[in-house]
Amino acid sequence: LRQPVLVGEILHDGAAFPQRAPGQAGLLDHRRQVGRVPGQEIGRAGVAVDVVFGKVEPGGAHETDVAIIGAGPVALFAIFELGLVDLKAHLVDILDRPGGQCAELYPEKPIYDIPGIPVLTGQELTDRLLEQAAPFGATWHLQQMADRLETLEDGRLRVTTDLGTQITAPVVVIAAGGGSFVPKRPPIRGIEAYEG
User: What is the three-state SS of the chain?
Assistant: First the structure.
C-alpha cells in the first residue's frame, strides 16, 4: 500500500457477506479439526501454525470472505469475530509468524491495558489470541508485504503482495498497526556509502 492507513479500517463493496453453502463445516466441526499433529513443528503458541491456520507458499490467486492486512492482536481477534459468523479470512503479514509488535518487539514486556486481564506479556497475549482463533482456520501469507489494493469490476477488492500473491475478497480489513517491519532509509544525502 502506498499511502498511510488507519488501524482497523474496513473496506467493503456494499454487497451482503457471502453465505456458507449447505454442508460446509461450521464452528463445531472446526473445533474437532484443531489439535497437534505428531511430528509437526509447533509454534510459540503451542499449536501447529501451518496445520491449524493453513500457512501457504507465496504466489497464486486466492478467494476468501475477508482479507486481513496484518497479523497482530487486532487481526488475530478479527479471525475469531469473523469465525463466529462463519466467515473465512486470509491474512498477509511481513513477519514470519503471527503476533505483530507484541510478539516481535516486546514478547516479555508486561501489558496492563487489556480489558479483564490485569497483566500479561506480549507473547502471552499473542498465544491466547492464537488459541482463540484456532477453531476458525484462517489462511496465512507470512513474510509478504501487501503492496497493492485495487477494486475489481465486480466490486470485490484484490490485495497483491510483494511476492505476487493475490487475495480477492468483498471485504479487506487493514490491521497494520505500526506498519511493515522493513528497513527505511533515512533521507540523508550519500547514506548509500555507509550501507552494507
Answer: CCCCCCCCEEEECCCCCCCCCCCCCCHHHHHHHCCCCCCCCCCCCCCCHHHHCCECCCCCEEECCEEEECCCHHHHHHHHHHHHCCCCEEEEECCCCCCHHHHHCCCCCEECCECCECCEEHHHHHHHHHHHHHHHCCEEEECCCEEEEEECCCCCEEEEECCCCEEEECEEEECCCCCCCCCCCCCCCCHHHHCC
Q: 25 to each of 28, 82, 87, 124, how far by Cα in Å?
A: 8, 14, 11, 29
For residue 182, the model assigns a pLDDT of 63
- Extract the C-alpha cell encoding 23: 454442508
Distance (Å, whole) CA 95 – CA 101: 10
Spatial CA neighbour of 16 closest among 130, 132, 171: 171
List per-block mean pLDDT (blocks of 10 residues) for the chain, which spans 196 residues. Answer: 34 36 35 33 42 71 97 96 96 92 89 93 94 93 94 96 96 85 78 82
